[in-house]
């Protein structure tokens, strides 16, 4: 009987060790890579119709149907030949409340003259020898109608990387660093003062940087740059007086653009109807607006699944494995109890025990 007891104990220990190995191991993942040094610089060649000569970007007074070539000098400060790509981008507003000159294809319905549509890059790629310089040329064609307000955009100059410059992590993810310069371009045709005007678009529940969030889309519908806007948002459940979330920030907005301002929830979104009260203030002017939205049960579930704010549940196979281990442990315990009972009730075993005494 003693040998059976030892065998069962070994199986019991083996099962415990197996369970520990299954549920105690966590795969590690990381990325590594050392950024390369920027080896080029840029300088705008300011023309005679530059309004503000104290700035390093283009601030130009244009006329209807006027055409003009703008020049940006690119310097290769490195010891190898480089290629630099040039693009014309219309200004927009990003989620951080910063005017964005680098993201293409963000055109609001109120934007009448996108800079990217009136600018043509004549030199899309520059090949610059070590220690040398080249000039990027951008041809601007103004529309026929006189335009009040500001057309805002930028020339983005990006150094192209050689294929061998890409780094691969241990997980097989390719990391390729790119370095860019942006030369801002501000165009106007008149001295008519155009002031920003803000209006709500919509509030949408979703995911922002892997967190549950409600993004508030607010439009600047005028052709005017808006700087240092004080933004405050309070979110209420429908019919409740106490705010469930609040947020405040100072933001800038490009002309005729939409600010996608997210409020991170930092917990699971609860289904229901909500309303966000928005207050904005700039240069002594104020705006107030309400932005209602609804979180459906399906949307809440989908967001919870993709958000890091929710503790992930065990997959079905994990639950099944736990149940199987528990069942096996219970069976082993019952077997051990049965063996002990049999020992107590076995007269031969008791006799041998008496003789050993």
Structure explained in plain terms:
Residues 170-304 form the WxL Interacting Protein host binding domain. Residues 1-31 form the signal peptide. This protein has two domains: 40-188, Sandwich (Immunoglobulin-like), CATH 2.60.40.10; 198-306, Immunoglobulin-like, CATH 2.60.40.10. A hairpin with a 5-residue loop joins strand 11 (167-168) and strand 12 (174-175). It has helices at 2-24, 115-118, 297-306, 316-345, 347-356; strands at 40-45, 58-61, 67-76, 82-90, 92-93, 99-100, 119-121, 125-128, 133-141, 151-160, 167-168, 174-175, 180-188, 198-208, 211-220, 226-237, 243-253, 257-264, 272-282, 285-295. By secondary structure, the chain is of the alpha+beta class. The longest helix has 30 residues, at 316-345. The model is unreliable at 1-35 (pLDDT under 50). It contains five helices and 20 strands. It has a five-stranded mixed β-sheet. It has a four-stranded antiparallel β-sheet with strand order 1-3-9-7. It has a four-stranded antiparallel β-sheet with strand order 17-16-19-20.
Fraction of residues in helix: 10-25%
Radius of gyration of CA atoms, rounded to a whole number: 33 Å
The secondary structure category is alpha+beta
Q: Give the biggest sheet.
A: 5 strands, mixed
Low-confidence stretches: 1-35
Helical run tally:
5
Which term fits the overall shape?
Answer: elongated
Strand order of the largest sheet: 2-13-10-4-8
| CATH homology superfamily name of the largest domain | Immunoglobulins
Mean pLDDT: 85
Counted up, domains total: 2
CATH fold assignment of the largest domain? Immunoglobulin-like
How many strands in all? 20
N-to-C CA distance: 18 Å
Protein name: DUF916 and DUF3324 domain-containing protein
Transmembrane segments: 316-339
Signal peptide: 1-31
Keywords: Membrane, Signal, Transmembrane, Transmembrane helix
